[in-house]
Hints:
alpha+beta
Amino acid sequence: MSRRYDSRTTIFSPEGRLYQVEYAIEAISHAAAAIGILTREGVVLVGEQKNTNKLLEAFHSEKMYQIDQHVCCAVAGITADANTLVEHCREAAQDHTFRFQEPIPIEHLVQILCDHKQSYTQFGGLRPYGVSFLFAGFDVQYGFQLYMSGPSGNYGGWKASAIGGNSPTAMSLLRQEYRDDLTLEEAKGLALKVLAKTMDTTTLTNNKIEMSVLRKDPARPDRVQFHMLTPAELDALLELHKDLVIQEQD
């Protein structure tokens, strides 16, 4: 029955479903996982790096993007779609800064992106973007924030969230383990523990994961710093939390 209604994004099925949007969500469920955890000290984003080819440039990242000084994101889904939408976000952030001489509020940026994504589910000749986002950001009104956005254009604020492959398993574990008083270092350990549960591998290594942290700049507390962990820092972190990771994999 669905074959009569899944060729266009603008046609509802008799059950009230948009199959093309559901297909986009299904494509994301097969992508590498990404996890975000919010704390009072900052936000931790971690993602699975599926392309572990040793010929790949060391600085290349397919999961983490910095959008502005105070906001970054992790993605799951079609990387080409993610690149297009990240550029859209960067232009919106710079336009806001140029017009109002202040950083763009995080929810406003997410809403701009989601309005754009929603339009691709409403007009003929277009397909939904096959990518989900986890946005980590900071603004003076609400402090550190974490948002999740899907291909339909919906978004919501979260204390911890997961997108991509095995995300229901990751969300179940996050619901059990998350605490409001988590420190940034504890959040890193929890992120590794949850990622180990979702990945189809027996060991975590620095070439299989990416992690970034949005936090206050230690040298300038009035500014926010986006930091992408280096392979050496990932090795040290994995060694520090190896008991948690091994326990979760078992």
